Amino acid sequence: MAADEGASSPDAVKKPRSDLFARIPSAIVLIAVALFTAYAGGWTFALFWLAAGIAMMVEWTNMTRVEPRRPVQVVEGLGLVALTVILLRDMSLMTGVAVVIVTGALAVLIARGRAGRLWAVSGFAYGAIIVLVPPLVRAHPFLGLVGLLWMFAVVWATDIAAYFTGRKFGGPKLWPRVSPKKTWSGFVGGLVAGALGGLLVAWGAQRLGWIQPFSLRNTLLLSIVASTASQLGDLGESALKRHCDVKDSSQLIPGHGGVMDRLDGFWAVSLILGAVLLIARLAA
Asked: Which of 162, 168, 255, 273 could bond to 186 as cystine, CB 3.0-4.6 Å?
């Protein structure tokens, strides 16, 4: 995130500033919509994440050049819609599993080539995580809105702090082959901010009586894990873009690129929470 720190030319200085000015308004709008829909819950919230999941699936299949592209995207989009309906109508887990299997099988039948089939199925799985997990967290009796705000706080604080500390301090690169701009200083700054952000949300919720007493140590540890996962998700998407030889997943969001570019870290945290919720469901 500090690739231009040592640049001396005016163009090199103006570019990051103009990029930042483009990012801020988009980020404000996205944060406001995310918080409003989180507060509203129900269909409003689920439809917001359905739109995000479909956009991510489309960007994934576009980047990986799955063919025939539109038929695959239509089938997988319908599969994501079906998963949202199953979730909102509180249907059985097996019904959801059946939809996943049928959608994946259809994608395999339609897509051409071994690599194309693999990218098609993985794109559906990628979108399904973001379609399912945030609404599941919002509806969970012990997580609910606080759990969702914790996810937002960890990811947003990590992202913002990593961006600014990386640009401010620079230093050794985190993984230059995958993402030349990311630095270890940015990673540490993001980790500290994400851990503190998650801790503050949980502490504030307890003080307001929204949740039962909790262990500060366990919350801090979980926030550290989530912040690390968020940054790994960002690196994972950078690796995919480098593999596909693209700069951004799309140009949908001014200053940010595509939905995948904006939600890569949140997706990684959702994956972890989704696995935890699934294990708890199966163990019940």
From this structure: 162
